[in-house]
């Protein structure tokens, strides 16, 4: 089959959906095509590790209704080659797609543990992964959660809340290490333990195999752990092979300019794969959060449809961990100078991340309605220090 689209979007996630909708808003007559390798049409990813486990949402509620944008969604297909000169993409089913303008929104692939332990070990990212884990992570089941980052901390809390016995395993010193200040990391380790989670920090999973109706893991401390299922969240790799094969500039993702345009004038990139420069932070970034996927998708769609404006949005993300929650703006890197301003230690407060007297990131821990104020602070030249920051952002709840 050969088809032709004015705008072809490669990847079927949240960035793709946002781009299709913003193209439609500007170019009502546009012919937009989306080719994505997941069978499901675009859906919201954040509920997979949070709301779906709490029963706040069901899989039917997370559909993004991309069809409403008028885009033709070619699901279950993967673009495997791009001929930039001919403006032609080819998929793994032998179909070809002609395009005028193309958006790469191919997302990222979970890093894998170096062994196969069968269907009960799930590298967690997609709706299919959620469904697979749900089959085994029933009430009372013992689930090992490998990784102490975003997926690991959210899933461990959600699974414990859903009545599973949870063991967290990760090589670092504590949950959230490298992102949060030490006191908060230690508080989180204790908080998870108080909520019934076994937190095994500093422990690597070195091997594993399927055994009967479970998985047996060999750990770096010499122990063996037998569980009903394993959920793995040990980081992701941007899906930039297609861009690389096509000869686009790739360096920790697809390198784009301030219009999210790649080194090819007719190809843009958005979401997890895009390496862009943020002017306020004065550095290039690749951001793997929902807000960036949606915001960059929307922005790329607008630019592709003819609105010439720069993308200068600061990274924003949020999380829910048991009854704790936070919003964050900019860079959370505990190697920066960290100023903690607690209203109640580790329960409610603000953490600032500084570099040379400039605020580069703000963590709003159980502190709400301060995101705009945090953005403004990061835009200011400073210099700031602990005394000028403490008490600056109100600690409203
Ligand atoms: N709330 C949110 O914004 C949110 C929620 C879920 C996922 N995400 C995104 O999804 C992506 C994937 O999340 P993630 O949690 O996998 O990545 P992550 O980078 O947040 O965390 C990776 C974790 O795995 C650990 N790790 C690395 N190698 C390991 C190994 N061999 N064995 C055990 N642990 C190992 C790291 O120490 C770290 O704790 C991220 O890009 C994240 O930003 C975001």
Protein model, in words:
GO terms for molecular function: FAD binding; NAD(P)H oxidase H2O2-forming activity; protein dimerization activity. Its cofactor is FAD. Keywords: Apoptosis, FAD, Flavoprotein, NAD, Oxidoreductase, Transit peptide. This protein is an alpha/beta fold. It has three domains: 177 residues, FAD/NAD(P)-binding domain (3-Layer(bba) Sandwich); 121 residues, FAD/NAD(P)-binding domain, CATH 3.50.50.60; 67 residues, FAD/NAD-linked reductase, C-terminal dimerisation domain (Enolase-like, domain 1, 2-Layer Sandwich). Helix content is 21%, strand content 32%. The chain is built from nine helices and 25 strands. Strands 1, 2, 3, 4, 5, 6 and 18 form a seven-stranded mixed beta sheet that branches. Helix 1 packs parallel to helix 7. It is globular and about 60 Å long. The termini are far apart. Bound molecules: nicotinamide-adenine-dinucleotide. Nicotinamide-adenine-dinucleotide (NAD) binds next to helix 4 and strand 21.
